[in-house]
Amino acid sequence: MATIGIFDSGCGGLSVYRELVKVLPREQYHYFSDNAHCPYGEKSALYIQRRGRFITEFLLDRGADIIVVACNTATAAAIATLRAEYPDVPFVGMEPAVKPAALGTRSGVIGVLATAGTLKGSKYLNTRGLYEDDVTIAEHVGQGFVELVEKGILDGPEAESVVRASLQPLLETGADTIVLGCTHYPFLQGVIQRLAGPSVRVIDPAPAVARQTVHVLEQRGIPTGTGPFSVKLHSSGDPAALNYIFSLII
Ligand code: DGL
């Protein structure tokens, strides 16, 4: 059985957790929500690296065999540093699903919703550079999306208004594919899809991240599947939002 540590700036990473338990149902999980320091999107890389170290130590102290950085912003800002400082620990990170979007678009225009930290990260910029000659890549920060999810507001007039303000500019470019480049955003996918319309494809990268985690565990020879399943939720701040979103996905 593997002990899988997962962290995010808040409850967004639960969108990755719910995909992980589908492919790895008989493991021990520790999920850490750093909601006392959320959002990360506008924070400095140094700040996020400091938080990443603290959380990595917290998860290793609880026996983590692998750490899933279920946060695009933390991946962009900190995963290279964490890998260098913890060379024996396998880390799995996130990045916006530009490749499947670019390969699948029919209009030749894709829209990327993410945080400012992700959009300025070298990992994303390198991937964007591979496809921007072939497709038009429109970007927009999901302004207020993280705050909505952290408050447990996943639909309704307020969610529609906040989502529309960031989504509409992408739709106006002719995007027929919307990439959810932040792990909080899949919890707003109902509103996003409704506002975008059924002809627009919305991509959540979480299933691919779950498959990559299986691959890394196999590569490292870490035994899995022997159970029993357990999950422990941890948060640096008020656990209410984390517990609420968790209650929606179990
Ligand atoms: N959910 C995280 C991400 O995927 C971070 C969002 C934030 O705290 O700004 O980027």
Tell me how many strands there are.
9
Instruction: Going across the biggest sheet, name each strand in turn.
Output: 4-3-1-2-9
* Ligands, ions, cofactors: D-glutamic acid
Q: What is the number of helices? A: 11
Largest sheet: 5 strands, parallel
The helical percent reads 40-55%
Low-pLDDT windows of residues: none
Span of the ends, CA to CA: 21 Å
List the secondary-structure elements in sequence, H or E: EHEHEHEHEHHEHHEHEHEH
Strand content: 15-25%
Mean pLDDT: 97
Task: Describe the protein's architecture and organization.
The protein is of the alpha/beta class and 250 residues long. It is 46% helix and 17% strand. The chain has eleven helices and nine strands. Strands 4-3-1-2-9 form a five-stranded parallel β-sheet, sandwiched between helices. Strands 6-5-7-8 form a four-stranded parallel β-sheet, with helices on both faces. α2 (45-61) packs across α3 and α8 crosses α9 (189-196). The longest helix is centred in the first third of the chain and has 17 residues, at 45-61. It is globular. The two termini are 21 Å apart. The model has no long low-confidence stretch (mean pLDDT 97). Bound molecules: D-glutamic acid. D-glutamic acid binds next to α3. D-glutamic acid is lined by residues 8-10, 12, 38-41, 71-73, 115, 118, 146, 182-184.
